[in-house]
Amino acid sequence: MLALRLYGKEDLRLEDAPEPLLKDSNAILKVKATTICATDVKAYLTGSRTKIPITLGHEFAGDIVEAKGAIRDYVGKRVVVNPNIFDGKCEYCLSGEHVLCPNRYAIGIDVDGSFAEYVEIPAQAFYVGGVLEIPKGLSYEEASVIEPLAACLRGQLKLNIRPGDVVAIIGAGPIGLMHYMLAKTFGASKIILSEIDDRRIETAKSLGVEYVVNPLKEDIEKAILELTNGHGVDAVIVAVGSPHAQRDALRIIRKGGRINFFAGLPSSSEEVPINTNIIHYKQVTVLGTSMQTPIEFRKTLELVASGLVDVKPLITHRYSLRDGLEAFSKSLKAEGLKIVLAP
Ligand SMILES: [Zn+2]
Predict the structure, then answer these.
(1) How far is the centre of ligand 1, averaged over its atoms, from the C-alpha of 286 (Å)?
(2) Which residues of the chain fall below pLDDT 50?
(3) How far, in Å, CA of 252 to CA of 281, rounded?
(4) How far is CA 204 from the centre of its chain?
(5) What is the CA(291)–ligand 1 centre distance, in A?
(6) Does 241 share its domain with 160?
(7) Ligand 1 center to residue 104 CA distance, Å?
């Protein structure tokens, strides 16, 4: 079968790979739609993966075509899969915080992923509620972006976004815009996006974003204080992996506000000098989130299926898997929002 495999730093190959084999401990999914994530791009740029070569791709939806034993009833079903596989029995899993599971591993990160015609789904994914049937009316490509959206949902639940909140989102890439859509659904009264790329600012405006600040052209603190009657914002979501953005978050947060360092930083710049007195005297809560638990994944699917969040505008490009390298180069240039590969 055709697969897009990473061999090392900037060495991605479209090749003929063996199809995954059916065992008692897995199911086989025929990929119908899979989207490229910044994590895939990061893997490409660094070449760092526990397994090399590896088929990338962890945002996907498709049909279960083969399964045995307890999960055989899934054959023929359209499903979306949480790529994170949890053991379901450690202290963290038992307390509902699966994302902290010490035995977690992920499809497309630790084992072969979805940039292929078929992908192996461990039976364990079914047992911990990570394989969900796609409701009627929802397309495979809409379902394939449930994974990143669910990570955003977790981020906002942990940040406790409430009706009436004034929220700033730093970074208007696909993740920043997903946060925008969710904050709107949660009832935020004002949502301000900070972005330095003119193309992304235009895209954000075309999606209905009213307030955009460009920190390259204006002082972000001054601009946000003006938009918030001098108070600062109730919550900040840092959706770009930049130390500068993390420092900006502390400048624009109001007293008693909440900040989520949602985006991870490149390993070369993870030590960030920040004024911790701001946290102390403004009495700010700073937290971080990543990934999503099975229940957050399910709730996100329901949000999209019910029409409360429309992810269609986020899908800007479509390629066949055969043109996967071209799609990837588009993603490297940060053109468009979500790019779908359909085998
Ligand atoms: Zn666990």
Answers:
(1) 25
(2) none
(3) 14
(4) 17
(5) 14
(6) yes
(7) 7
pTM of the prediction? Answer: 0.96
3-state secondary structure of 35: strand
Claim to verify: residue 183 and residue 246 sit in the same structural domain:
yes
Q: Where are the alpha helices (DSSP H) in 19-94?
A: 38-46, 91-94
CA of 96 to the centre of ligand 1 (A): 9
Answer whether residue 302 is part of any domain.
Answer: no
* CATH classification at residue 265: 3.40.50.720
CATH at 30: 3.90.180.10
88 C-alpha vs ligand 1 centroid, how far in Å? 5
Look at residue 333 in the predicted model and tell me its pLDDT. 86
Query: Cα of 90 to ligand 1 centre, how many Å?
Result: 4
Distance (angstroms) between ligand 1 centre and the Cα of 91 equals: 7
Q: Taking a C-beta distance cutoff of 8 angstroms, is the pair 64, 14 a contact? A: no
The strand pair at 105-106 and 84-85 is best described as: antiparallel
Q: Which domain holds residue 58?
A: 2-145+311-342
Query: What pLDDT, on the 0 to 100 scale, is given for residue 151?
Result: 98
Q: Is residue 39 domain-resident?
A: yes
Q: What integer best gives the mean pLDDT of the chain?
A: 96
- Does one domain contain both 230 and 134? no
Are residues 108 and 194 part of one domain? no
* pLDDT reported for residue 207: 94
How far is 231 from 124, CA to CA, in rounded Å? 48
Q: Are residues 141 and 177 in the same domain?
A: no
pLDDT at residue number 23 = 94
